[in-house]
Amino acid sequence: MKHALAYEWFRVRSLRSTWLLLTAAGVVQFASGLYWGLKRDLGTLDAVTSAFGLADRVGALLVAAAGVAAFGLDHQHGTLATTRLVLRSPVRIVAARALVTAGLGLLGGLLMVVLTAAGVLTGGGALPADVGAAGRAVGGVLALTVLSGLAGVALGGLLRHTGLAIGAFAVWVFVGETTLAVLGRVPVTALPFTGTALSALPGTALYAGLVAVALAVVTFTLPRRDG
């Protein structure tokens, strides 16, 4: 497994897109933090937690795109056969990609949190006085980026096309969940992506469960579809 992790880490860090996507996620959050930090009429709102909102969803989408590339680019460029030749076991391939992507998701989430706070302070705003609420918001961002990165890996492995997988993820996040909440009257805390962003246990548990099932399906179908 150590060899598989080293192989995957070398592949990921050699992709310029990985670092561009993570940087873009941080820049979006800094801009959002700056916007809310410049506001002087927040009332009871908190600048840092308010700065997450839509911005952390965009950031999570960018992290998911990095996860999609783990399989999507292999399929598009025909290099998966080389990966399978080197690592042999589908379990090792998927597990290594999931672990490395989870680490990148955590790094991306931490970058987003730090740059959000930096943006707020740059705009003259203040850090949250309610440590508990801030902690829940930060926890939601980190869980969201890690799980979204893993969801990207799963979608890339299932759909085998980078653009299609990213598009499917974006449609679900910005259209599918909104439709379920508004028309289907599904509580937002029970929605996988939105619930995780809100640090709601039902949504987070559902998101984690869906990701686990999808990765298991990728592992099972990999040798059958690409053998």
TrEMBL record:
Signal peptide: none annotated. It comes from the Bacteria. Keywords: Membrane, Transmembrane, Transmembrane helix. The chain crosses the membrane at residues 20-38, 50-73, 94-121, 133-156, 163-184, 204-222. This is ABC transporter permease.
